[in-house]
Design a protein that fits this description.
The chain has a domain of 123 residues: Decaprenyl diphosphate synthase-like (Undecaprenyl pyrophosphate synthetase). The protein is 40% helix and 15% strand. With 246 residues, it is of the alpha/beta class. 34% of the residues are buried. The protein has a 6-stranded parallel β-sheet with strand order 3-4-2-1-5-6, with helices on both faces. Strand 3, helix 4 and strand 4 form a beta-alpha-beta unit. Bound molecules: 3-methylbut-3-enyl trihydrogen diphosphate (2 copies) and magnesium ion (MG). The site of one 3-methylbut-3-enyl trihydrogen diphosphate has 11 residues, from strand 2.
């Protein structure tokens, strides 16, 4: 567990070694609300501020790809009221924030399954937001929604079979080319908040060599200074990729 709470700005961050892709498991909303005697949904609402500050911090420090885990393929197991809230909340967040993100040069993308359980209205807002921001290049914000790492691998295998890929031709390169976004670089840094030490089915294929940073900050309390702290921690690590330090 890393203490990310130092009240520092960009001090100590090497601008030449900024992680290209940062991915966040935004966890702890329910516990944040419970601590305050509020309903769990109040924690999700409070998470919006954390998300926007993290996006702005990522832009400030020069992160090119930011991926956030908003709803997993397992989150359908939650009580129907909470699931319904999350669907509406994500829809309204998109509508309220997309112009601001567009103005900042953020390209919005969604990764995950578009299955029948995702309300049509939300799918429509997703498509509009993706279309609106398609040409932006300052940063790509990928929202993982109804996303599961195993589901992504299952879908990649199915699409390889549908394309008639022969067994002898299967390679890491071919599998990668059938993932949801083949152009997305693997995450350099994965941050999970709320003190849980697990991946919870996030980006399983892509995070093979990511640096993992776990923090006990609950997501609604997460701010850019925590992101900067995680980047400092990332820069202190040796990435060997199975080789030897050079
Ligand atoms: C993360 O917070 C948001 C989603 C999974 C949608 P949680 O809702 O998991 O909050 P905790 O982990 O119960 O505190
Ligand atoms: C992971 O958090 C999914 C998201 C943050 C969207 P969960 O709260 O669903 O994960 P578990 O249940 O603690 O593993
Ligand atoms: Mg959780």
């Amino acid at each position: 567990m890393v203490d990310l709470d130092a009240n520092l700005g960009l001090e100590g961050i090497d601008p030449k070694r900024i992680p290209v892709h940062v991915a966040c498991v935004m966890d702890g909303n329910g516990r944040w609300a419970k601590k305050r005697g509020l309903p769990r949904t109040a924690g999700h609402t409070a998470g919006e501020e954390a998300l926007m500050d993290t996006i702005n911090g990522a832009l400030e420090v020069g992160v090119k790809w930011l991926t956030v885990y908003a709803f997993s393929t397992e989150n359908w197991k939650r009580p129907p009221d909470e699931v319904r809230f999350l669907m509406r909340f994500n829809e309204s967040l998109l509508v309220r924030r997309r112009d601001e993100l567009h103005a900042k040069g953020v390209r919005i993308r969604f990764t995950g399954r578009r299955d029948w359980r995702v309300p049509r209205r939300l799918l429509r807002r997703i498509d509009e937001s993706v279309e609106l921001t398609r040409g932006n290049r300052l940063m790509t914000l990928t929202i993982a929604f109804n996303y599961g790492g195993r589901a992504e691998i299952v879908d990649a295998v199915a699409s390889m079979i549908a394309d008639g890929v022969q067994a002898s031709k299967v390679s890491e390169k071919i599998i990668r080319s059938h993932m949801y976004f083949p152009d997305m670089p693997d995450p350099d840094l994965v941050i999970r908040t709320s003190g849980e030490y697990r991946i919870s089915n996030f980006l399983l294929w892509e995070l093979a060599y990511s640096e993992l940073v776990f923090s006990d900050v609950l997501w609604p309390d997460f701010r850019r200074r925590h992101l900067f702290g995680a980047i400092r921690e990332y820069q202190s690590r040796d990435r060997r990729y199975g080789g030897l330090e050079v």
